Amino acid sequence: MRRALSVILGSQQFGLVAVILLLGTILTLFGGSHEDRATGQMVNNFLNPQTLMQVATFASFFAIMAVGMTMVIITTGIDLSVGSTYALSGVLTAMVLSKMYPIVTQPAPGAVWVAMGLCLGIGLAAGLLNGFLITALGVHPFIITLGTMWIFRGVAFVLSNALSILVPTSLTQFAKAPLGFAQGVTPVPVIAMLIVAVAGWLFLTRTVTGRRIFAVGGNLTASQYSGVPIKRILVIVYAVSGLTAGIAAFLAMSYFGSAQSADAQGYELYVIASAVVGGASLAGGKGSAISAMLGALLISLIQQAIRTLKINQEYEWIIIGCAIIIAVVLDRVSARVGSARLTQGRL
Amino acid sequence: METWAVEAREICKRFPGVQALDHASVAVAPGSCHALMGENGAGKSTLGKILSGIYEPDSGTILLEGRPVRFANPMQASQAGVSIVHQELLFCENMTVGENLCLEDLPNRRGWVDWGEMRRRAKAWLEAIGADVDPDATVGSLPISLQQMVQIAGAIGRGAKVLIFDEPTSSLTQRETETLFDQIRRLTSQGVACIYVSHRMDEIFEICDSVTVLRDGKTVGTRPTEGLTRDELVRMMIGRNIDTASVRAIGTHPDGVLLRVQGLGSPPRFADVSFEVRAGEVVGFAGLVGAGRSEVAQAIFGLDPKATGRVWVGGTEAARRSPASMMRLGLGLVPEDRKRQGLVLGMTARENISLPSLPRLSRAGFVDRERELELARRFFDAMAVKAPHVDAPSAGLSGGNQQKLVMAKWLAADCRVLILDEPTRGVDVGTKSEIHHMIRRLAAEGRAVVVISSELPELLTVSDRILAMRNGRIAGELPADAATEEALLRLMTGVEAAVSA
Would you say residue B196 lies in a domain? Predict the structure, then answer.
């Protein structure tokens, strides 16, 4: 029992989960309630299936990318182009779909698979391009992805003439499938987020490539001396980052029913924030896919809190900015306390 | 009673997981050079850092000329007259010598830096210790030996009465070491008390008047160096006897060439390097710093893309050399800088040992953690790494144990040919002899071993043959039983006449 408790308390995610639960409790207690128009029952403004699912859904789009970003950050890199990769995959896919299925309302069961393949493929290709440029030119990833951030969005802009392109409604039916949940609850993006986070966690902690990602980030020279194929590892992390942007683009495009070149503008900052709030260290060698997802959930929850507590919307950026700094500082303090406690316990 | 220049009484210092100092005491007379000795982890560097204000002691007192003092930081210590010359020098490498010397108190006129005054002060300080350094030179462009002189000039210029040297010669050549020793002698003759932290015995006997030995954070004793023998000193340090003579006694049967290098070159660093190492053989590489030994090792291991020449491992020629392909052929390199090149310090011992072997330990890309643990445990135990367990963080291990970990890593990777670059640098005496025995055992088990070392006694102890390099070329070869330090030095330096070794 004490052992189980210490495992939970000592786990990497405990702090984040605790903060999320605490904020959730506060919202439940102070968010007030409203009368449901259909049933006439009083419903808590926060603690109801629709709101909770909305928080998770909004989080899912950048949580998925935060899993890829975490891998990049573990290697001491950064990928600023994820928001643009997302827009590019969405726009290109939507354009292909509009050629294949000119009437969006017509049932098109194959469209989902075409869209999924295209989005993921384009995202992966964009990520590979980043990886190859970074390793071949030997330029810092900040610069390369800063460049491709403009380029990818520019390509999407030119090709689409900045128009919003509708996608077949069968995509929306897929993304908003209730799967037997309560009315108004659409779990598909959230399920996708959970799958990506668990897959990312398995990849990072259980595979050879995952271990090498940590090694490269922990000590590049020693990894090279250990026969780790550095360039291949770097290409892989940027490819995965691009791939996750493609996944997010597919889900969001399907969910919202359209794509345009201005989609996900500034998303890279939410994605980096999620990874960092989730404990990924820009110094490299440290990070977790599950924590990155929790980081995204926390940010989405803060946005919800502003709505539920009826705080002036204008304060959102200030609050999120403060939350990021506080989260990272707290993480560092608790890591220090935790390691001190661990070593004392051993003696 | 004599007044000590500086005295530390009953100092205790605890770090997470380790009692670094346990009622340690030392006293140094003005104008003397006093050695702090001990194995790695004995607490000698910690004591030096406490005296210079880098760490604060948990308990105990420091007396400066008989008066108790407390330093909250190095700045306070230096104002009181105690300065440290650092193991890893602390400089803003991109700034000039003058700026660095005056950093604590930059001469200025209403906030604007007074460059003339700064240069004048820096020059005066440098001249005071007879150092020939340009105050306008960028610190990063100076060799370590001159950076040290700048540090000393700064300390003396700020009025240091006690100067602490923490492993000052670890990156110096023999000549630079001599210059440093002349400097220390000059300082002591002017009444400065010097504390010399080192585990290099030759240096202690050459430069120090007395020595305090620490073991496990406790003071073992203080002796004048005159009349003290090396054996006594070693016994004080490790608390037992060690044998250095019997290392080579294990029988070997040289047969079958495992490593063959032909015409290896990478101008301008080295050229025309050819040699062979047989199974069961240990071949030593002697040479001065910069002779190209480490560069040859790195080229063999595929870390130098510009290197030309051919390499065979166990009869197979390495077509394209890269660390991964050399590893597959069964060649491993234990690099000289274990913290930078050898280990991923953020990972555990297990993860470090298995890193090169991961592909072998995986199924469908997933690491088989049972097999990984088993492999790591086997070589962790074989190398007798002293750590709480195989999942201990590698950053917390002592230098000797980190070195064993790097060796374990390559043994786990099943290497038939091992190149060890400075395998005992910064390793304490006890572990050193352990590593020497292991090197012989690795050869006796049928491996081919190359040992690069700057310590000639070490090469003479472990090698069967010794190759000497000079200016990027192999200058000659001697069988170990016929080799002497003098003969090797002659090959290394190219001096035909007798060299005073």
Answer: yes
When divided into structural domains, chain B yields a total of 2
Q: Is B179 in the same domain as B265?
A: no
Rounded-to-integer distance, Cα B405 and Cα B402, Å: 5
Domain shared by B188 and B287, yes or no: no
Residue entry with tokens 């590019």: A88
B228 at the A interface (CB within 8 A)?
A: no
Mean pLDDT calculated for residue range B169-192: 86
Residue B273 has what pLDDT?
94
Indicate whether B208 and B284 sit together in one domain.
Answer: no
- Shortest Cα distance from A312 to chain B (angstroms)? 44
Is the ipTM value over 0.90, yes or no?
no
pLDDT score for A337: 62
Q: What per-residue confidence (pLDDT) applies to B40?
A: 66
Q: Is A343 an interface residue toward B (CB < 8 Å)?
A: yes
Q: Is residue B177 part of a domain?
A: yes
CA B130 – CA A119 distance, rounded (Å): 70
What one-character-per-residue DSSP string does B23-81 give?
Answer: EEEEEE-TT-EEEEE-STTSSHHHHHHHHTTSS--SEEEEEETTEEE--SSHHHHHHHT
Residue B346 at interface with chain A, using a CB cutoff of 8 Å: yes
Domains annotated on chain A, with CATH: 52-330 (1.10.3470)
- CA-CA distance, B170 to B153, in Å (whole number)? 20
Whether residues B234 and B287 fall in one domain: no
Domain residue limits at B446? 245-493
> pLDDT-derived band of residue A334, with 50, 70 and 90 as boundaries?
low
Which residues of chain A have a CB within 8 Å of the CB of B366?
A: 206-208
The confidence score (pLDDT) of residue B358 equals: 93
